[in-house]
Design goal:
With about 500 residues, the chain is of the alpha/beta class. Helices cover about 40% and strands about 20% of the residues.
Length: about 500
């Protein structure tokens, strides 16, 4: 038997990081099958009612209401889970708040607006905005008014609001990185999901979060490093947005004496927009890593064009005259997995850009690849029987009411257990993303399922995206996957090639 309990707190806004922490705290029991701390947006309310929570518990909840919900084995476990979530959200830091509120000598109340915060920190020049989408544009405009650049981590921001924000920012000589910008590194400081990489001569402009992480960590592991990483949001290089921030970012890097090469990273962009953005650089060479895009002469607007993230990083290394390691681990092991009757590849990704790159490589080697973020119309889900499938588990349909899989791998483990054990599956393809904001042991969370897959006769091909200095330990995470029987490669592109080779040889 499973019981459900729910608590609503009107007018109790908490940011996404606190909500993720509370969700983890509530889930920290074997007697809890599901839990969520979230603001009661319409999507969250729909998710909760769909899971069977009584509508009367949400009758007065709106997007400003905080909701704690739990499914547990019994009432006692549910109450304890709710108590853990409530403590995380309301008790942490209470002593400091009480002191400030009591008028204690020297106490200063926390700022309540972006403008107040900017006045208290006059040396700050960037605001990170992470609020529900309907409020994100207003917060970003306030930051621009306060003289700040903006990393707009929030998603679900209307397209018209994004265009208006970026046009205003451009007029003011500021950047709006986002919406949905998960990664940046400015002046050596990582923002969002970034990695602990060293300084170097490559400036990255990315309309793809894990795409930025992949190229910055490859360059770091090759001893090259980056000057700046500017994430601009996944829609920036679309025709609708017109590359407003990517163009300004390229111009800024072109003027940066510490940047010798600019690497433009994008999911499939609008070609005319990509040409214009490349043309924004007057003197600094540009390399374009535009997933799936090709040109007869291998260039776009005079810039070398790569169809994969790895290919773009290799082009940069060539321009700089740096040698890089060969394909490395994984390739020789592929031929050992020729299983009769197993011909399909299944990819379960926490990084959306890596999911796109895998589709490009698998599609060239194996034919159509289906996905919840398909490269082309007609390749969406549901897929036909026996098809190759790559899933981006960070998309909204998988993250409603629960953390992103880079933060909490539990959801991916559950989906793998449900979908990765088919008798037609030759190889399961995985990414493990390290860095700031990611789970402390992401490989360990899925290692048991990987071992079960290998024991069942399915090859597991894994790639660990990370830098040597990342706190999770790059070699330790690779070792965890290898100990579970996985083939571990040195790039995401190489992992896709190995998975394709296994399927072809089956």
């Amino acid at each position: 038997m499973t019981v459900s309990q729910i608590l609503a707190f009107p007018g109790a806004y908490r940011d996404s990081l606190l909500l993720l922490g509370a969700t983890r705290a509530m889930q920290d029991s074997e007697d809890v099958s599901w839990a969520s701390a979230a603001m009661a947006t319409p999507a969250v309310v729909d998710e909760l009612t769909g899971r069977g929570f009584p509508p009367d518990g949400l009758a007065d909840a709106d997007a400003n209401a905080l909701v704690l919900a739990v499914l547990a084995a019994d009432d006692r476990a549910a109450r304890q889970a709710l108590d853990r979530g409530r403590t995380m959200l309301f008790e942490a830091g209470r002593d400091g708040e009480d002191a400030a509120g009591s008028g204690a000598a020297g106490a200063r109340p926390d700022p309540r607006t972006v403008g107040e915060a900017a006045r208290l920190l006059p040396e700050a020049n960037v605001a990170v905005v992470s609020v529900p989408g309907p409020y994100a544009a207003l917060a970003a405009h306030c930051a621009l008014t306060a003289g700040l650049h903006v990393l707009l981590f929030s998603d679900n921001v209307p397209l018209a609001d994004e265009v208006a924000l970026k046009r205003r920012a451009s007029r003011l000589g500021r950047l709006v990185m986002g919406p949905g910008a998960g990664t940046a590194m400015l002046g050596g400081v990582g923002l969002g999901f970034a990695n602990a990489v060293g300084a170097g001569p490559v400036g990255v402009v990315a309309a793809a979060g894990t795409g930025a992480q992949e190229v910055m960590t490859l360059l770091d592991r090759w001893g090259i490093g980056v000057s700046q990483v500017i994430g601009v949001g996944g829609r920036d290089l679309s025709a609708a947005v017109g590359g407003l921030m990517a163009w300004d970012a390229v111009r800024a890097l072109d003027a940066d004496p510490g940047t010798r090469v600019i690497l433009l990273v994008s999911k499939p962009p609008d070609e005319d927009v990509a040409r214009a953005v490349i043309g924004a650089s007057r003197t600094t060479p540009v390399v374009a890593a535009c997933l799936g895009m090709s040109a007869p002469d291998g260039t776009l607007a005079g810039a070398p064009l790569a169809a994969t993230l790895e290919g773009g990083a290799l082009q940069v290394a060539e321009i700089l005259g740096r040698t890089v390691p060969g394909p490395g681990r994984g390739t020789a092991q592929a031929t050992a997995w020729a299983g009769a009757g197993r011909t399909a590849v299944r990819g379960f990704f926490s990084g959306g850009t890596l999911c796109y790159e895998a589709q490009v490589i698998l599609g060239e080697a194996l034919g159509p690849v289906y996905s919840n973020i398909p490269l082309r119309p007609g390749l969406g889900l549901p897929a036909p029987a026996g098809a190759h499938i790559c899933l981006d588990l960070g998309e909204e349909e998988y993250t409603k009411g629960r953390p992103h899989p880079m933060i909490d791998p539990a959801a991916r483990r559950e989906i793998m257990q449900a979908q990765a054990f088919g008798p037609d599956i030759a190889a399961v393809l995985l990414d493990v993303v390290l860095g700031y904001g990611s789970h402390p042991d992401p490989a360990g969370e899925i290692a048991g399922t990987c071992a079960d897959l290998v024991a069942s006769g399915t090859a597991v091909v894994g790639y660990v995206l990370g830098a040597r200095a990342d706190r999770q330990g790059l070699d330790r995470q690779r070792g965890t996957l290898a100990d579970a029987g996985a083939i571990v490669t040195d790039s995401a592109a190489q992992a896709a090639r190995v998975a394709a080779a296994i399927a072809v040889s089956a």
